[in-house]
Amino acid sequence: MAFLMTVPPGPDRATQRLAGQPARSWALFGYGFRPFFLAAALAAVLLVPWWSASLASDMPLGTNWPASLWHGHEMLFGFIVAAIAGFLLTAVPSWTGARGFAGWPLAMLLALWALGRLCVASSAAWPASLVAGLDLSFLPALAVFVLVPLLRARNRNTPLLVVLAALWLTNVGFYWGIGRDDAALARHALLLGIDVVLLLVTVIGGRIIPAFTAAAFKQHGISSTLRAWRGMTPLAVAAMVAVIVIDLWRPEGAAAGFAALAAASIQLARLAQWQGVRTLRMPIVWVLHLAYLWLAVGLALKALTLLGGVSLAAYYLHALTIGAAATMIMAVMTRASLGHTGRPLRVSRPTACAYGLLTAAAVVRVFGPAWPTLRYAQVIVFAAALWTAAFVLFLWVYGPILLKPRADGKPG
Fold it and tell me: What is the DSSP letter of 22?
């Protein structure tokens, strides 16, 4: 899985060749990250408050699925998959030198994602086969978009399509469970989908965190060289693959606990090599380290739950989803949105505040249920409010950036 490369902060080579074309006043479909980062943030702002309101006040969801399964599915295949799409549609042109994805094909792909979300949100009103068919069509369509330039360039990142295929298969498993009224199977499929996302965090994080940290050190005149053991990357990837395999076989057993413990130790050792403590005055960098720290913490909490039945660690899954996955998504979206629109790689105070609010949401959601004076519904509402505030701030700062042309006048 060491095939992933860093997404450069500026325009790709093909975009640079197009420089000189007149800029438009509205650039939503000018590059792949624009519509899908915006879609991911909108999904985050809409889905979580809806879920918390349904739990706290019996607000209807419009679906005949179990509410927790609807929530888990839409956070994975709505929010997270939209962010992954934005990343890939931006990274592939940079990796291959191909022309960036733009225009009506990009709009059609976004419409397909949005149609899937609308059908899931109102699934009680539609045939199950229609809902499943529309939702399951998005990841193959995304794969078709990125496959051609990857194959044409014989790019070493082509195996990344395996990750998309694995995610798609977990969605197939989810619908199979829903169709059979087997909530346990559907829940198991979501767990495996989350595991696949965490593998992606491991690979992408291992590429961009040390690279961006070293660049920040150089920019700030900090004399430091990041030295990492070469064997740590394959070891970390192998550990996460082991987590997936064992979760596929026996997700609640002792073997899954030991795999999580080993993976947590490896991830923590890997993170320590990247000198995150020295980035505390650089929000755009430390947020990446924080996301990766949540990955190690979440895996450790999983081990404590499965091996020791520690009640404080029972909600470890949200350390992995809110803490690791969502924080990494926000970190990448804020950085890429600046770099790929010709803006300096410096985040504003509202953005740093959004990082803090998202971290607080993770802390409350993971450890709040153990607080003796809080009811579970109160924890959900409090964590949802923090989460929503974080992404509202993202939309406030980055919505105009994603909608408007590049600051340097270049296309894209």
Answer: P
**25, 27, 30, 33: CA torsion to nearest 10:** 160
pLDDT at 222 over 90: no
Residues 18-30 pLDDT 10s: 434 444 568 999 9
d(CA 60, CA 179): 21
Question: Under 8 Å CB-to-CB from 272, ≥6 apart: which residues?
Answer: none
Question: Looking at residue 332, what is its pLDDT?
Answer: 97
Model pLDDT for residues 158-177, shown as the tens digit of each residue: 888 899 999 999 999 999 99
d(CA 132, CA 119): 9
* Beta carbons within 10 angstroms of residue 368's beta carbon: 18
Structure tokens at 39: 């879609």
**Three-class DSSP category at 277:** helix
Q: Is the pLDDT of residue 7 over 80?
A: no
8/49 Cα distance (integer angstroms)? 34
Beta strands in 107-222 (DSSP E): none
DSSP class of 59 = -
Q: Mean per-residue pLDDT for 274-286?
A: 93
Listed residue (189, 196, 184) closest to 321, CA to CA: 196
- In terms of C-beta density within 10 A (0-12 exposed, 13-18 middle, 19 or more buried), how is residue 21 classed? exposed
Question: What region, left, alpha or beta, does residue 225 occupy, with left being phi > 0 and alpha being psi -120 to 50 degrees?
Answer: beta
